[in-house]
Amino acid sequence: MKVLQFTIPVPHDRSIIVERVSLPHHYPYLHRHKEIQLTWIRSGHGTLIVGNNVHDYCAGDVFLIGANLPHVFKSSAEFFDRSSEKKVEALTFFFNPEETLFSLLTMPEMKSSLAFLQQNKNGFKVPNRIADKVIYTMIALDGTSGLDQVIQFVNLMECFLTPGCKYNSLSSQSSLPSIKESEGLRIGKIYNYIMQHYNTAIALEDVADIAYMTPGSFCRYFKKHTGYTFISFLNEVRINEACKKLIAHKFESINHVAYKCGFASITNFNRVFKCLVGITPKNYIDRYNNNIFSINRDNDYENLHKDHLDFPAFNKSRKLMTSVLSK
């Protein structure tokens, strides 16, 4: 598994490249490309790795991924089951403000859009309050060409400039250290190993062996190329999964969720959970249930989007507190 540098083929008559995906699972390799990527997840769920951060994704989410940011949409395990009939579906646009769209975005009328893209190089998840509008515009843009394509692209940029929208970065670093192919092979294997084994006891020696390093060398290498300690990254993955399981009500107890997500100690699980999410697992469930009860009682679907946006369960860009987690 390599961190691949993609070259997106650009037709001579189009400035925006459209990709429609309907497959058993998303492309599983960590990669990057010089184009900005806008992806609407129509169906499917899993974990998104962007730069040095981890997020979960599900149907209805829309992500903008900045140019040259290493990323991968890692479909959940059930999508790799050959006996499964599940599919992932997505609509993606690729565009390059510095090349094919340069003339358009440097027009005086488009300066706000260009500034917006420059300010959000780390990418973001489209806020719920404008997600439907963005999706509608993406559908309108899909299949267009010529002047119609340009018009719909301008409409798309206008969606992002909606007053009052807050954008949270997908990655805390816009550019990680340059990764050679051999290094990309290593870091890719590490990511893949973590995503496949987060629910088991992962020994430092085991993951170091995957990278063909000693434990000490591996720790320094991982910190250099991701900005975080290995334990911090692993805990982020585990807590993301725990959040989804806790509100799905498919487990008998909080303790059961902790063990299923790879924590051997309930005390450690509670400590890490509160450190990353800001509240205890029990308070997390209670707050979620209270929000849902309030929404059902009032039948206020506008507030449903707002509550989900503000609730920790849906805050998918939680920042790691490495000073605590690495002790």
Automatic annotation (TrEMBL):
Pfam families with a match to the protein in the record: Cupin_2, HTH_18
Keywords recorded for this protein, A-Z: DNA-binding, Transcription, Transcription regulation
Gene Ontology molecular-function annotations: DNA-binding transcription factor activity; sequence-specific DNA binding
Name used for this protein in its record: AraC family transcriptional regulator
Record has Ligase as a keyword: no
Keyword Transcription regulation: yes
HTH araC/xylS-type domain mapped to chain residues: 188-287
SUPFAM superfamilies assigned to the protein according to its UniProt record, in alphabetical order: Homeodomain-like, RmlC-like cupins
